[in-house]
């Protein structure tokens, strides 16, 4: 088959260029903030969950079930946070953004490591540090777009 004939109708279509891998508007650091808040919420819930008396089998089963559910959600949301951050780092930010944000790579690297820390531990301080890192990413992102967008927490 002659592929030249197949693509000939598209020969007049102009080439589109963008600085991002996806079109503008698909990237937003809010997704990382939302998932990081879920990590903190589940961490707090896990720490607040009362351990039942050892002789109460039903209460112990309920406790273990609830703890497992909270842990699963925390793990999934920490991984989602890491994914959102890594997509922004690798797909949105370009070398020219380093001039305005010389600590860009360190910020993202530390934020990704905090995602792992929050999966490995029940540490509210690490969760708070992750949310702070998400705020820093938020400011870098909107600064790169020359926009002033408030960072807010849902909880």
What would your notes on this structure say?
The protein is elongated, with a radius of gyration of 22 Å. The protein contains six helices and no strands. Helix content is 67%, strand content 0%. It has helices at 3-7, 30-48, 57-92, 95-100, 104-120, 124-144. The protein has a single domain, classed as Nickel-containing superoxide dismutase (Four Helix Bundle (Hemerythrin (Met), subunit A)).
List the keywords:
Four Helix Bundle (Hemerythrin (Met), subunit A), 6 helices, about 160 residues, about 0% strand, mainly alpha
Please identify, by name, the CATH architecture. Up-down Bundle
Number of beta-strand segments: 0
Q: Level of helix content?
A: 55-70%
Q: Number of helical segments?
A: 6
Q: From the 3D structure, determine the CATH topology.
A: Four Helix Bundle (Hemerythrin (Met), subunit A)
- Based on CA atoms alone, the radius of gyration comes out at 22 Å
Mean pLDDT, nearest integer? 90
How do the helices and strands line up, and which of them pair or pack?
Blueprint: H1 3-7, H2 30-48, H3 57-92, H4 95-100, H5 104-120, H6 124-144
Concise account of the structure shown:
By secondary structure, the chain is mainly α.
